[in-house]
Amino acid sequence: MICEPCCMMRRRLKRRPPPAPSTQPRWLGLTGGMASGKSVTAQLLRRLGLRVHDSDEAARRLSATIALPAIARLCPEAVIADKAVERLDRGRLAVAVVRDPTLLPALERLLHPLIAVDRAAWARRWPQHRQRWLVMEVPLLLETGLDRQCQRVMTMMASPKLRQQRALRRPGMDAARWHQLLARQASDGQRRRASDVVLASGLGKAATFRHLRRELIQLHRKITDRLPRGAWGRYGSRLGGHSSAGRAPALQAGGQRFDPACLHHRFCPCFDGELA
Question: What fold, for 6-219?
Answer without folding.
Answer: Rossmann fold (3.40.50)
